Amino acid sequence: xxxxxxxxxxxxxxxxxxxxxxxxxxxxxxxxxxxxxxxxxxxxxxxxxxxxxxxxxxxxxxxxxxxxxxxxxxxxxxxxxxxxxxxxxxxxxxxxxxxxxxxxxxxxxxxxxxxxxxxxxxxxxxxxxxxxxxxxxxxxxxxxxxxxxxxxxxxxxxxxxxxxxxxxxxxxxxxxxxxxxxxxxxxxxxxxxxxxxxxxxxxxxxxxxxxxxxxxxxxxxxxxxxxxxxxxxxxxxxxxxxxxxxxxxxxxxxxxxxxxxxxxxxxxxxxxxxxxxxxxxxxxxxxxxxxxxxxxxxxxxxxxxxxxxxxxxxxx
Length: 316
Description:
The protein has a single domain (35-313), classed as 6 Propeller (Neuraminidase), CATH 2.120.10. The chain is built from no helices and 25 strands. It has strands spanning 6-12, 17-25, 36-38, 44-48, 58-62, 70-74, 86-91, 97-101, 108-116, 119-130, 133-139, 142-147, 160-168, 185-191, 200-205, 211-215, 220-226, 232-239, 248-253, 259-263, 268-272, 278-283, 289-295, 298-303, 308-313. It is globular.
């Protein structure tokens, strides 16, 4: 069968060299690829909320480089809405998967998925009633979840509120109030941009256990150092808005602790070294890039505005 992939060459601006790029077509029906992770078997996993609801929200995977993406399983719909919108995904210490189901305000879920013989056998709710569940990362038995908006929080200055939440992996059916006063909220931010209201969106963790999360509307990225209790002990702006990242959406890190950012409104993939040097991996050629993932020497970027994923070879 003829491959559904198209390839071309593109200049890697950060390295001033030519890097191979490839557009990977998702299976029919997948309308919005998004969250990415590598599973315990070394396969590349892509979540698709399929927000048009023509097909169910589902989890896809690529088993080896060069293979076609395949649907792994569908995420059970929420009874109240009739659909699921899986976005952020990650894996825990026992091989379980965690999925952010981004529902309309006040109905979002954080799900725990367990497997037997590679098939999902149980879906448990870690947290429910979330305002805007988006990104998730597992670290030391805890789950860090971004809520990109908290519409129930009213501010006199017109700014929008967002937050980073921490749940224990053993939690079940936790229902926060979706305000910075929640005991599960370990960090919050405000978005001053009145046209783009989204706040804390993507989340990544490096080899030292340091968290990174970006403010989508205001264009800056936070570096968060955690204390022994898992809560934020120190915060600083790691990538300022002046660096030119318009809308940091998804984030990920590689084995060298370089941070990668999908800049949706900037139509770019950006690399930030541990020292804070900001470099453009690729500018243009995307359709609303929403999430990056590093796998086997390449950077994968989801095209939220299309049905494809870009693969960009990395040259260290």
